[in-house]
Amino acid sequence: MDGVADGDGIRVGSATGRWVILATVLGSSMAMLDSTVVNVALPRIGRDLGTDLAALQWTVNAYMLTLAGLILLGGALGDRFGRRRVFVVGIVWFAVASLCCGLAPNAAVLVGARALQGMGGALLTPGSLALIQASFHEDDRARAVGLWSGLGGVGSAIGPFVGGWLVDGPGWRWVFLLNLPLAAICVPVALRHVPESRDPAAHGRFDVRGAVFAALALALVTYALIEIPAQGASAVVVGAVVAGVLLGAAFVRLERRLADPMVPPSIFSSRQFTAVNVVTFCVYAALGGFFFLSAIQLQVVAGYSALGAGTALLPTTVLMLLFSASAGDLGRRIGPRVPLTVGPLLAATGMLLMLRVGPAASYVRDVLPAVLVLGTGMVILVAPLTASVLAAVDTARAGLASGINNAAARAAGLLAVAALPLLAGMGPEAYRDAGEFASTFRRAMPMCAGLLVAGSVIAWWTVRAPLTPEPRPACATHCGVSAPPLEPERGSRHT
Fold first, then answer.
1. How much is the pLDDT for 478?
2. Would you call 450 exposed, middle or buried from its count of C-beta atoms within 10 A (0-12, 13-18, 19+)?
3. Does residue 277 share a domain with residue 242?
4. What secondary structure letter does DSSP report for 138?
C-alpha cells in the first residue's frame, strides 16, 4: 500500500487521519449532496425553465443513472491507476459538470450536464471509502467507516436545507455552483495529505461492456417508467421496456462468462452480502422516493418556502451528526441484525407520520415528529449497513463489495423516483396543483414505508453474522473492481 510506510496504517486521532477523513467526507459529500440538494429546487427549476414533471424526474435521474451504472467501473480504475488519483480526477470532473449545470439555458442542457455530474460521482464515490479502508490502521477502521458514513449521511441530509437557502437567495443555479469552492478545498487537501494506494493484483481488462449494458438497461427502464403517464403503452415505451430487460439479461450473461467481470457472480455466494444488498435496495428506494416527494409536498401543498422546506428536514441532519459514529460502534458490538431490523421500522413510521402534512401544516405538530422518527431510524441503520457490507466478504474484496452496494443504493433511488409518481398516479403537471399532488403524496408515502418494512423483515430473517469479515474462500479472485487491501498481505500474492 503506497503512502503508509510502516505498514500499520494511519490512526483516526492523528493529524493525517483527520485530513484523510476531511478529504474523503468532503469529496463523497459532494456526490451525496447532489443526490438530494436538487429536490428542494425542483419546483423553482420547473417554473423557470417551463418544464413538466417528467423533466424534473430526469433532472434527478440523469445524475443517478450514470452514477449507478458506472460506479463499479470507477472503482476498478482507482484500484488499477491509484485511488487518490482517480478520486481527484472525479472531483475535478464533478466540479466542471456542476458549472455546466449552473449555466444551463434549458432543461435539455441541464439533464445532460447532470448525467456528466454522475460520471464524475462514479469516479470519486468508490474512491472515498476505498481510501478510508486502505489508509487506516486495522483497529481504527470501524470508527473511520462510522465517521465517514455518518458525516457523509449528514452531507446527504443537509442537502435540502442548503438547497432551500440557495433557491430563496441567489437562485437555484447556485445549488450547482456551490460545488466549485468545495472542490477547490478538497483537491489540494487530498493531494497533500491522503496517501496513494492501489491494488498490485489488479489485472485484466476493464469490463466496459458490462458497464454500458447496465447503464443502458437502467436508462431504458427509467425512460419507460417516466414516460408512461404521458405516452401510455405506446410502441416506444413498450420497446424501451423490452430492450431494457434484454440488456439486463445480457449483462447477467456477460458477467457469468467474463474472466474479469465488473460484478463477479461468486461474490453473491455470501448469503450475508446478498441479504444486506437487498436491504440496501429497499432502504434507499424508500429514502429516494421520500426526499424527492416530500420536498415538493412541503412547498406546493404546505406552502413552505424553499428554505422552509429544507429547514424542516434539518433535525435528521443533527441526529446523524451526533449519533452515527456511536451507532457504528454499537453495530460492531451487537451485530447488524437488530439495527437493520429496528432502523427501517422507525424510518417507515416517520414516513407514515408525514401523511399529517397538508395545507398550512404546523411544523411542531405535523412535520417535526415525522423527521425526528425518520432521523432516528436512519441513525440506527446507516453505519451498520455500510459496515456489514464490508464485513460480509473477505477483506481483499472490500472495495468490490462497497462498489456493488453503492450501485444498488443509487439504482434503488433512481427507480423509485421514476416509478413512484407512476404508481401514485401523478400527472405531468401534478407538481403545479396542490390538491392533486397532496392526494398522490398520500398514496406514495405508504409505498415508501412498505419498502422499509420489507427491508426490515429481510434483515431479521437473513442477517446473522457479526461485523467481522468472513473467512477467505480458497478460490477467491480479484474480478473487475479489485478491492483495497485493508492491510499488506504478508507472505502471499492474491492472484
1. 28
2. middle
3. no
4. G
For the chain, give the longest Cα–Cα distance: 68
Q: Kindly tell me the burial class for residue 480, based on how many C-beta atoms sit within 10 Å of its own C-beta (0-12, 13-18, 19 or more).
A: buried
Instruction: Among 261, 289, 305, give the residue marking a domain's end.
Output: 261
What's the angle, vertex CA 67, arms to CA 324 and CA 384, rounded to 5?
Answer: 20
Q: Which among 214, 236, 221 has a CA at the least distance from the CA of 74?
A: 214
Other C-beta atoms closer than 10 Å to the C-beta of 470 total 17
Contact 280, 266 (CB under 8 A): no
Three-class HEC string of 427-456: CCCHHHCHHHHHHHHHHHHHHHHHHHHHHH
Least confident of 99-103, 106-110, 119-123, 261-265: 261-265
Q: Across 17-26, 35-44, 367-376, 394-403, which has the greatest mean pLDDT?
A: 367-376
Name the DSSP letter for residue 362: -
d(CA 168, CA 293): 19
How far apart are alpha carbons 342 and 256 in whole angstroms?
Answer: 36
| pLDDT tens digits along 166-182 | 888 899 999 899 899 98
Q: Are residues 128 and 176 in the same domain?
A: yes
Q: What residues contact 32, with CB distance under 8 A and at least 6 apart?
A: 152, 153, 155, 156, 159
Q: Are 74 and 87 in contact (CB under 8 A)?
A: no
Number of residues written out for the chain? 495
pLDDT value, residue 399: 66
How far apart, in whole angstroms, are the C-alpha atoms of residue 284 and residue 414? 9
Copy the grid coordinates of residue 319: 441526529
Those residues whose C-beta lies under 8 Å from the C-beta of residue 273, and which sit 6 or more positions away, are 267, 389, 392, 393, 401
Q: Which cell is 366 given?
A: 405535523
Structure confidence at residue 327 (pLDDT): 79
Instruction: Tell which residue, 92, 104, 265, has the closest CA to residue 185.
Output: 92
Residues 231 and 280 in one domain: no
pLDDT at residue 202, as a whole number: 64
Domain boundary (235, 261, 287) is at: 261
